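Possible regression after last week's pipeline update?

I re-ran a chain I had predicted before the update to compare outputs. Posting the input and the new output here so someone can diff against the archived version. Not blocking, just want to make sure nothing changed silently.
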Amino acid sequence: MKKPGGTEKKRYLLENKSVITKQGVSKDAFQLFAEKVRDNKGLESRWAVMEEARVEYVRGKYFVSFLKNPLECKEILEEDKDLDAEDIANVLLEKNVFVRCDRVTKTARPGKKKLSTWPAHIEIYTKIKVFSETDAFLAWTFEKRHPLWQTLLSFWLISWDRELEYYDLHSELIQYRRAQMIKQKFISEELIVDSHLRRDNGLSPLMPEQEEVRHQIHKTAMLMEATKERWHLWRKIGILQRRHEMSNTKRSMRA
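New output (post-update):
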């Protein structure tokens, strides 16, 4: 059989470009549809342990009854929006958007006549990979996207928690230092950690590195004060020199 040449191959790609594009769009559309469905609060879901990992899953019959309702997100599917709920579920199974699962424990707990509606432990159902409305559990395989404000809030909470940990550690170090100084009888005062007023007045002993920083700050402040006084002095000298020059100029003009 003769293989198609470069021109024929290019013609084949151009003729089937629309089909290939529709397939790619359909795949993205079903993924986007699944994300919209998962974010919808009308679909009840739970979390369970599956193979040592926590996954979010839904019941098959709840999923079908949810899709039978008029949903705006079905418009994403374009020409596939009129498919039955079972057909949509089978397409999502084929695309591995979710996997069919089954409960690990097949018997009711002691004192219970029925199995739990939402089992805490599930496993992948490997026998049949076809959707079943009656006994199927569907576990989502993709990570749920969080809004931007939730991400920023989580980063802010983490940074705030780290600041609290640093503050607690710093207070413990100060408390330990004070306790050692009281034990060595360097000071005989009550052990008070959070006393900013006493610390500012120089009555609360600090850590050695704090004393060094405080000394550097005091030294810098003194240097700035001296520089300020020196600048005022030079300013006064400059004013006096200008006044003297102006008086000499007036005298020469009179003469």
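Follow-up from reviewer: compared with the archived run. Residues 147-206 form one domain. Marking as no regression found.
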